[in-house]
Amino acid sequence: MDSIKILIADDHTIIRNGLKLMLDKNSKFKIVGDVNSGNAAIDFIEKNPNQVDIVLMDIDMPGMNGIEATKILTSKHPHIKVLALTMHKEEKFINDMINAGALSYILKETDIPELVQAIENTAQGKKYYSNEVSMSLINALMKKGTDNGHDLSKRELDVLKLIASGMTNKEAGEKLFISARTVESHRRNILDKLDFKNTSEMIRYAIENDLI
User: Fold this and answer.
1) How far apart are CA 97 and CA 83, in angstroms?
2) Which domains does the chain possess?
3) What is the DSSP string of 77-123?
4) Helix (H) or strand (E) holding 58
5) pLDDT tens across the length of the chain (212 residues)
6) 142: DSSP letter
7) Rounded to whole angstroms, how far apart are CA atoms 88 and 85?
8) Which stretch of DSSP H or E encloses residue 27?
9) Which residues touch 101 (CB under 8 Å, ≥6 apart)?
């Protein structure tokens, strides 16, 4: 199996060197280059269009930022996938990167196993969001859900928030002073109303339908 060819775009030398050191230890990955700006990322890919599978893209960089660079790269080179790797967990940055064409979005505080998983998923064309990013998207969807015709009740929104935060039905029930069976009933109603099978579908739907 061919190695996943990775370009690192980050303006901090210590971040680039650290990522290279960690990822070079994994035989599945091949670091083909590292650059310190969006402009440099575009220049590298223009010269080596078939040598990059994934760009690990920071947002805040001098000159052209990661959002603008992602927009250009995914438009001109759709076969190259962008995985945003940034400190920004705010909804605006997440939306801007996803709308620019980034397939996945994780935070710099992510541990190595999750980074590896994110890279592998992205290489396969699958979206990947770190937990805090997922929560930000879910919370935004919850705020706008009733405004977009989903008609979730306040109790259903409460249940959705608790389950999305990682609670079991039993834990959510204790928090809301209802039974685990009642929580499960609310959960099924939420999925039915939103026509989702799982949290990943919820996030994907929210992005594709501009609910966040």
Assistant:
1) 9
2) 4-129 (3.40.50.2300), 133-208 (1.10.10.10)
3) -TTSEEEEEES--SHHHHHHHHHHT-SEEEETT--HHHHHHHHHHHH
4) none
5) 689 999 999 999 999 999 999 999 999 999 999 999 999 999 999 999 899 999 999 999 999 999 999 999 999 999 999 999 999 988 889 889 988 999 999 999 989 999 999 999 999 988 888 888 877 776 666 665 555 556 678 788 777 777 766 678 898 899 999 999 999 898 888 778 776 766 556 555 555 555 44
6) H
7) 9
8) none
9) 70, 71, 73, 74, 75, 82
pTM for this predicted structure:
0.71
Q: CA 171 → CA 57, 72, 86, 158, 176, distances in Å?
A: 37, 45, 32, 13, 9
Q: Tokens in use for 69?
A: 């660079």
